[in-house]
Design brief:
By secondary structure, the chain is mostly helical. Helix content is 69%, strand content 0%. It has one domain.
Amino acid sequence: MVVDQLINTLSSFLRYPIQDLPFVVITLLIAFTVHEFAHAYTAYKFGDNTAKDQGRLTLNPIQHLDPFGTILILIAGFGWARPVPVDRRNFKNPRAAGILVSIMGPISNLVLAFIGYGIFYFLISTGSWTGTSKFFMDFLDVFVRLNMMLFIFNLFPLPPLDGYRIVEDLVSPTVRAKMTQYEQYSILVFLIILVTPLDQYTIFPIMQHVSNFFMNSFQTIFSLFM
């Protein structure tokens, strides 16, 4: 009875069903690590050693995870890893390199979702799933959905997300300066949207539609080969 009460209490604080918690934690370890590594590696290839010098050019999750940001995604459905340090002065073309460094994080989550979906589709279409543990199939389902969510979420043009950094590099220096001036207020608006019911009418409907588009695209692509 006490154990059941503890489980029910814990469940009330979590964004995800408690039975999915192991899958969510494993997925976040992979997704956040690959996401930040993608930023660091891209910056390194364009001539910026800042992340490498700080030990961030690695697939070791300990170097990338932010404890509070990870816990928050379990509770609120959103969170973050430790941002990769980037010194734009080391880029020959700061704007173009900056865009690529910013976008490669979300792209890495899209690639992970694509790989996970491909494995899931193969197991289902070939009937191999009947010999596969339910644990693994449930993990693949969470892995695909969560990586897809991270891909879309990080592309919203709101600070401190990658989408905002991409917009910063696309606009003129004058507009960029204005954006920097009002960035703190934009962050406040973003947080208000996330922690109030407004997210159900703004961010999440967009994420749902975009997610459905990509999932249908994945299915179309894999159906051509299986």
